[in-house]
Amino acid sequence: MAAKKPNEKPDYGTTGHSWDGIEELNTPMPRWWLWTLYLCIIWGIGYVIAYPAWPMINGATPGLLGYSTRGEVAAEIARFDEANAPMEELLVATPLNEVEQLPELNGFAKNAGQAVYNTWCVQCHQSGGAGAQGYPVLVDNDWLWGGSIDEIYTTVNHGIRTEDDADARYSQMPAFGEFMSEEEIASLVSHVQIIAGQDGNAELAEAGAALFYDNCASCHGDEGKGDRFQGAPDLTDRIWLFGGDTAALTETITNARFGVMPSWSARGMSEADIRAVSLYVHQLGGGE
Amino acid sequence: MSDSQQAPSLYAAREPVFPKRVYGRFRNLKWLIMAVTLGIYYLTPWIRWDRGAELPDQAVLIDLASRRFYFFWIEIWPYEFYFVGGLLIMAGLGLFLFTSALGRVWCGYTCPQTVWVDLFILVERWIEGDRNARLRLHRQKKIDFRKLRLRLTKWLVWLLISVATGGAWVFYFTDAPKLAVDLFTFNANVVAYTTILVMTAMTFIFGGFMREQVCNYMCPWPRIQAAMMDTDTLTVAYRHWRGEPRGKAKKGVVAEGQGDCIDCMACVNVCPAGIDIREGQQMECITCALCIDACDEIMDKIGKPRGLIGYMALKDETSETSGIAPVSPWKHIFRLRTMIYTGLWSLIGVGLMFMLFIRSDIDISVSPVRSPVYITMSDGSIRNAYDIRLRNKHGEAHSFAMVARSDVPMQLEVEGEDYGTVTVPADELRTIRVYLTVPDASSAANSKVTDVRIWITDEANGDRAHADTVFNGRD
Ligand code: SF4
Ligand code: SF4
What we know:
The complex is a heterodimer. Chain A is mainly α. Chain A contains 9 helices and 5 strands, in the order βββαββαααααααα. Chain A has helices at residues 31-50, 69-93, 103-125, 149-158, 182-195, 202-215, 217-220, 246-255, 271-282; strands spanning 14-19, 22-25, 29-30, 55-56, 59-60. The termini of chain A are far apart. Chain B is elongated and about 110 Å long. In chain B, strands 7, 8, 9, 11 and 13 form a 5-stranded antiparallel beta sheet that branches. Chain B is 43% helix and 19% strand. The termini of chain B are far apart. Chain B is α+β, with helices and mostly antiparallel strands. Chains A and B meet through strand 3 and helix 1 of A and strand 1 and strand 8 of B. Strand 3 of chain A pairs parallel with strand 1 of chain B.
């Protein structure tokens, strides 16, 4: 009988492997499969010639196409720079207080500003503008030098008390420890605590009030409300840059503080970036 | 293995297959299924569905750019991808169900590979003739004008079908009428052209040249299917107890002592997989059922009952061999396994339907801003910031009034807005920064967390949605 019975062994036989009555057939591979393998080998050879492949002592063989991942990144960055250029030009040309009316530009500035902030500002002012002791919180409604977009821009542009920029904002509180007794300083601390609405020694504070009027009011104001023109903090609110308890206030009055912020224009930040980060900070929640 | 045996070749060339034209019930069913499935594939992108001015009016659209999936009245956002996942699982379970009940019906009737190969073979038959003519053409070594003309025409028609197939594919991803114009005026995206090129090449090669090899070597499904099949599964089989011993019929009469199979090779000649079903169940068989039609035709001619080749559960093989009538196919189909598959399938289906109906057109989600956790304002009041995402699935812009509800009064402000009202453009997700502030003396300012619920009310129709969050005080 010519026809094979069901499941009879095929012509090409078995490999001879058998386990538990199950035998392994020696089915030939399809020939096109072999050709696919050869094609892959040819492709592989071509690839090695065209692209970086063999590791050498100083890097890999360059390959005929001159491709490199670094080059790709550089091209990518150049492409982004080019794509961003029109927006950056527009940002530089638009008055800062008008940016918010242009949704597209505003969105661009916010995102760019966030990137700049997270690269350069976050180390001191913390992520999201949370601030830290000695580094102002940027999300509240208390500003030393002003919280309007233009004031923020000036601060970022020129910095505070930095030697790198002649236009930096500048003021200096004297270290009163050099010419005041400890008792006088303690009475000043009490006075400041009372005007800030904290519990303070009322007796001491009376003497402190007179001292305050003579020594501090020229900058902080008669009522201690501060003066943004001189970067003098408001002493009556609840926000303390260096702390508002007795120890911190005593330290501040005795030795003074000298917070410094870099001038970002002097550090070479582009005008567009400075504007973007100013807008970002302005929109963090405290902008005026 | 003996030494005298010749070493077998490690590689074998494909045995070309020349399926013969066949007539019958299954062939007709397959023509119908081919027409329906191809119709669905080519025409679906052209169906229009009005969703309002700002949304696409294509009934079925996978909008990758704006990340939406439209299916008639249903619109799926990326965060609802579980719908798609659920549908895929249902498709999988559906395949399990059909495979356990009816074997490789998917392969035999509806798999694109089968449908397109069937179409390509149809074209081949129109142009080059039926099996014998094609065999002759294949064996003819000399390439004369006729062979060249036939081959080129066939390839050209195949290519046209392939281009149409690849072309239809991209219409699912953008507005079809616009893309069609762009494609012909060479204004379409390179991605569209590349996709068409790849799909065209695949259709052309898979349908014209690879054919059954796709099923044998590339497709994982035949290997997986074995796990779904058992002896109750109805599958295409040759009733060898009836057919054997086979022998040629003389003058249309089967000799005494001979089986019903007259070895006419009809079943082999029509098989698109190029196999002989009489050798038993084989991995290559896609159960296209064409050999049933072919054999039935022969049985009618020699006056024997139909069904020498037919759908059969392998369980019945022994009982049938000893002459007992087979049990009803329904008994094979309704068994624990298929019921479990059906149960799972319906469970997911009902779940998805339920989710679809309770889905709302607006949605709010709130994430508190963690840096800083809270903000002390100059008057000592405490403020928390939140990033709120508002989703408007309507075809036009809607305004939402926003309020915060909590045991303690809280003041709500929206960044950049004068009132607590936010407008969200049509079919968009808008993220806004919202501040909640409580006075210095408030209990919320002085306790670690206070529960807050933020409500939005759609000013157009009064629909409401809410999200819960917490207010962080200074411990
Ligand atoms: S084996 Fe795979 S490709 Fe072939 S018909 Fe079945 S599912 Fe389709
Ligand atoms: S053996 Fe029959 S059912 Fe199987 S693929 Fe061939 S023709 Fe189709």
